[in-house]
Design goal:
The protein is an all-beta fold. The protein is built from no helices and eleven strands. β5 (46-51) and β6 (58-60) form a beta hairpin.
Length: 126
């Protein structure tokens, strides 16, 4: 059974930083594409960032490009999202997602990922 567990969310002032972590068990982590999505109240879940199985390629939504960095440590079966220069509009529940890298094409859509975490709340105050 695959488990995906996020951590690291919290309350931060605008301009501040947070680092989210996502630990995966029950599947060979190095074979998985990993993604981050977020969902604000009343809005659809949207793509934030993703990284391929080896960590050699990362993908970002335009809204976070240059501020967020997606990374992974395959030895620790963990993905990270470093979020800098946070804005009020970054407030959302952030979800970690995992899927077989061989089946992922765009890395940007929810249906490409088979496994999801429970989400972690990120709140950015003004």
């Amino acid at each position: 059974q695959v488990q995906v567990v996020e951590s690291g969310g919290g309350l931060v002032q605008a301009g501040g930083s947070l680092r989210l972590s996502c630990a995966v068990s029950g599947r060979t982590f190095s074979s998985l594409a990993m993604g981050w999505f977020r969902q604000a109240p009343g809005k659809d879940r949207e793509f934030v960032a993703a990284i391929n199985y080896s960590g050699s390629r990362a993908y970002y939504a335009d809204s976070v490009q240059g501020r967020f960095t997606d990374s992974r440590d395959n030895a620790k079966s963990t993905q990270y999202l470093q979020m800098n220069s946070l804005k009020v509009e970054d407030t959302a529940v952030y979800y970690c997602a995992a899927g077989p890298d061989v089946l992922v094409t765009t890395y940007r859509t929810t249906y490409e990922y088979d496994y999801w975490g429970q989400g972690t709340q990120v709140t950015v105050s003004s």
